[in-house]
Amino acid sequence: MDIRLQLLPSAHPPHTACKLRTEPVFREHQLTASLIVRHDPTAMARSLLSHLLICCSIAGASDAATTATQRPADPCAGRRVHVRRLPVRFNLDLLRHCAAAFPLVDPTSPATSTPSCASLANHGLGPRTHPRSRSWYRTDGRLLEPFFHRRVLERRCLVDRPARADAVFVPYYAALDALPYALDPALLNSSALHGLPLARFLARDDPRTLARRHGHDHFFLMAGPAWDYSQPHDADPRMYGTTSLLRRPELENFTVLTVESRAWPWQEHAVPHPTSFHPATLPRLRGWLARARRAHRTALMLYVGGVSRPSRPNIRGSILAECANATAAVCTVVDCSGGACALDPLMYMRPMLRAKFCLEPPGDTPSRRSTFDAIVAGCVPVFFEHAGARTQYGWHLPRRRYDEFSVTIPKESVVLGDVRIADVLAAVPDADVARMRARLLELAPRVVYRRHGSTAELREASKDAVDLAVEGALRRIRRRVHVLEDGDPDAIYSLEDDDDLL
């Protein structure tokens, strides 16, 4: 099967420039390239690297053009980002893991496999769900890092000299780099070394950039929960499937974006799990939201996830027990055991459009991708603990206003039998459900990762998950830098996050 990579759709050239420019400069430097990759991740890596180098060379060539025109106000003030140049072994070469690098791994289990080569299509969004689809993809969340990298390269206000930057983005594919430690038994006891080569390179290659603000102005993204990268260095025995990246002292001042953060480390912040919906135009975004708004919802509640019965009482077991004794009009279950739903959004998005409430219990970790699928579908999420989302995604969802678009039922009351979930949800007036759904769909564009090369109309209409993640990192970095400049570095550890901007 061929995988077609559109490095830059010619219809949408403006954001390929690495710096803010006038429209004539954009027209002059339109770039169009396409590559047919026949299950060849190396070719994809080379094409992405070429795009990065071309983008940055254009930025240098047009410096004179941008400085020739003086503007009364600087639209890039406080927003300039430098994309750190890394050897490809830290990012693009890591895409080789798609090609069955570990023969002992079970390829049928997402928990013990590498992303398939087909998932690399469309810069990590994966192949389209249907040849005629323009917004829906079979997205493997483990490839969020190369997609995020691609989207950062589209941002305005990129600069090629770190001294001019307000923040430094490190395009390190940390989750992909962790695969050898997680999947190769021979490397299990070496998992504490994850990230050490990167730390040594940053300290050696350009020490002034790193030392200028002691790393406080650096940030990168990890396509996985922080828990998987926070094992103590001296843990014995080593925990299978985890590394010690976030324990590395050389990286402790970096802002780390993860799909799930821990409650206490001050350097982490969560970004939404990627869904399969990636619109490229405003009509396609609005068209889907209109469909979710008018959907006929016949089921009271829906659970999407694994259905194996737990060995001891927990909230998932209580949900399955309640749904087993309910009619389809009260509770619908979509069995996603063994990753059955991972790359097939049709299996769960259609049921979500037919349900009023979507149950979002914690699993191995508190958060779930299903939460963001539910938001996109207009299915009101039901949480059973605040760590499921409320304490996680403050840059994208208003932390103190969750009651406007979700329901919270304490998991202890369900597990102990004090309440039935269906009774609680059935008691919510229809008018309140309609208001929650309307608010949910207003927020949906903030958790969607729009497609690279999207139209200017869509970019100007709303900020998406990438926009808000980068702006949140910039705000956090500015506050840290101000504290450093004031001569009180210890105050950094007591800074509160600037959530709830809605």
Description:
The protein is an alpha/beta fold and 502 residues long. It has helices at 23-28, 41-61, 63-68, 144-152, 174-177, 179-183, 196-205, 207-212, 282-294, 315-324, 346-353, 369-377, 411-415, 421-426, 430-447, 456-461, 465-485, and strands spanning 3-6, 34-37, 81-83, 167-169, 218-225, 255-260, 268-270, 299-305, 331-335, 355-360, 380-383, 407-408. The protein is globular, with a radius of gyration of 23 Å. 43% of the residues are buried.
For the largest beta sheet, what order do the strands appear in spatially? 3-4-5-6-7
- The total count of strands amounts to 12
Summarize model confidence as the mean pLDDT: 84
Report the helical percentage: 25-40%
| Radius of gyration based on Cα positions | 23 Å
Number of helices: 17
Indicate the proportion of strand residues: 5-15%
How many domains make up the coordinates?
A: 2
Structural class: alpha/beta
Terminal residue distance: 45 Å
Largest sheet: 5 strands, parallel
Order of helices and strands: EHEHHEHEHHHHEEEHEHEHEHEEHHHHH
GO molecular function, one term: glycosyltransferase activity
Pfam family, one: Exostosin_GT47
Subcellular location: Golgi apparatus membrane
Protein name: Exostosin GT47 domain-containing protein
Give a nutshell description of this structure.
With 502 residues, the protein is α/β, with parallel strands linked by helices.
